[in-house]
Each structure stands twice: as structure tokens, then as C-alpha cells.
Amino acid sequence: MWSQNLNELVELSLKNRLVDSYNYELESLKNEFESVKSGYLPKVDVGASYSQTNKETANVANEGSTTYATASFILYDGGKRSDTFKSYDSNIKSTEEAIQANKNKIALNVVNYYFSYLSLLSSKEAKEKEIEQLNAQYNRLKKYLDVGTTTEDELEKIIYRVESANVSLHEIELQLQTIVHNLNYITGVDVSIESGSLLNEFSQLPTELTRADIKSLEYDLDTLLNNANIEKSGYLPTINLKNTYTKYDMNYKNSSYDSTLDDQNIASINLTWNIFSFGETKNRYESQYKKYLSLKSKYMYEKNKANVDLQLAIKAYDIAKLKVKSAQSGLAAANSAYEVIKSKFENGLIDNIAYLESLTEKYNAISVLKTAQYDIEIKKANVIYNSGNNLKEYIK
Fold first, then answer.
1. DSSP assignment of 126-179, as one string?
2. pTM over 0.85
3. Residue 126: inside a domain, yes or no?
């Protein structure tokens, strides 16, 4: 199995079926827009008919055929055409931003899984080393027990520590398997995580919100406002230009009914204007406009929340950097204490309780430092996401 670094995992996740679904939706909307635009271009229709009658008259031949061609074009529709085009345009832009937002959200999930996995992996390694040290001390003390220079309870304490550490180790392994399973689900392939990836540092912390999901809502607002204007155009007249050419072929039994009319061309300009509809246009407009007002309230709420999320993400990132410094100091102190206590324990100056405590503290400190270092990357990813920047561009 090939192992994947963070960049490869993100690449795979952005090619999954969910993203494909978003892209198909966008293409469908674009095709629909093209169809609507074509509908406003001049139309040409052709047709033909054939008829027979059992009662011939001057107006109805015993047998006849008609062919025709009609060209029509809407000259004016109260602004509905331009508002429809604007509505589709903003809807397409909203969908494009929504796709980018979803991609960035997927990338954020992958980044969180990746660094959480590495953090757990470092905890697993620290726990394995702790168990290795405990087993070494157990073997050493067992020799002393055989010659009567130590007691059974000293060995039991180490056995308890080993069993407890093994339980913790199994829990960590379960969490690692869960993350791999989730990444398999997101990427659609079996993954094996390769360490070494990080996120680039900020040249400066972002201060301006440019999240794609907020931009998508802005375009949705434009769409709804244009939809309201489409309904409002019902108050205005529609002017249509039409030209029809007809070719006749009539076969009369009665020669007195014969007509010299073989073809005819009719050009017309038509105006329709709905001046009363029991409030239909008014209610349709108000319905669409209230949808716009509803989404506007949601937009203001989401934008404010997104700004707060960004500030909280920046604060969490600053705290994460302080945690790394603290963990580095903690590891240095734990290493120093462990070396002193280990020497005293091996020379019989202290009991194994103090030694076991210092051993646990040392490997806990190693795990805490690694976790803090990976947590910085997660907090950094949250800042990138909440500011609206493209997470993939920050992976190195």
C-alpha cells in the first residue's frame, strides 16, 4: 500500500463523489441558463397541415394543405429578461462559491484527521517506550526477588503499571484505526498516512473575512432580489413582434369557390398588459421579497458568527503556541528528574513508586509536547479556514 502525505490526502478528498455531485449541479445550472438565454432569442417555427371535408364551402375546400413559417421576438417584457439573466448569473456564482466552501471544509476535516493521527501516533510510541522500560525494570527486579533482595509487592506494582499502559495503548490504536477509516471514507480509497507534512506560517495573521460560504450567501441575496424584480415586471406590458408566412394549396370541387389566394404574409406587433389580477402579481412579488429579507437576516447572522469564529481561531492559535513552549519546559524538567530518580532507584536509595511516577511523567511529557506541536497545525488550519483562505495552498 502506498502511503500518502497531507497534500496527497487532500487531493484525493477533493476528487470524491460528493465534490463530483457539486460540480454536476453547477454544470446543470449553467446549461439551464444557456437554455433560458436561447429562449429570448428570435424564434422560427414551421408547420404544415392537410385536411378533407364532407361539406365544401367557399372558406373550406374539399381537400387542402397549408404550410407556414413564423418568426417571433419579444421586444420588451417589463425588464423580466434582464432580471432573469441577473438571477441566473448570481445563482451560478453562489454555487461556485458554495463548491469552494465545501472543498475547504473537506480539506479542513482531512487536516484535522491527519495531525490528530500523528499526535496519537506519537502518544502510541511514547506509551510503547514506557512499557519497554517497565518490562526492563520488571526483569531486573525479578532477579533481585530470586535472591531475596526485593519483595513480591514491588514486582506487582510494575505489573499493574504495564497492564494499565497496555490498556491505554489499545485505546490509542482504536482511535488511530477510526481516523484511518474516516479518511478512507472521505477519500474513497485505502490510505496509509505518511508523516512530515506541515502548514506554512502566516506572513501576517488575517484580519479580513473572505470565507466562500459567506460570499455564496451574498450571491444568494442577489438571486432572491432579482427573483422579486422578475415578479414585479408583471406590472408592465409585454411587446412581441411576429411575422407569419403561409402557403395554401386548396382543391375545390366547385369551381366557383376557387380562390386566387395562394400565399399570405402577416406581420404584427402585439402588446399584452395585465392591468388587474386580484393581487396575483403583488402577492408573488411580496412573497419573493420576503424570502430576500429572510435570507438577509440569516446572512447578517452568519457573517457576524464567521467574524467571531475567526477571532476565536486566532486566539486559540496564540494559546497553542504558548502550550508548545510550556510543554518543552515540562519535558526538560521531566527528563532531568527522571535521570536523577532512576539513578537513585537502581542504587536502592528510593523505592520503585517514585521511579514509576517519574517514568510515567517523562513519557507523558514527551506525548504532551508532540500533541502540542501537532495541535498548533490544527489551530493554524482553523485560522486559514475561518479567514476564507484556501487550505490546500498552505500545505508544504
1. HHHHHHHHHHHHHHHHHHHHHTTSS-HHHHHHHHHHHHHHHHHHHHHHHHHHHH
2. no
3. yes
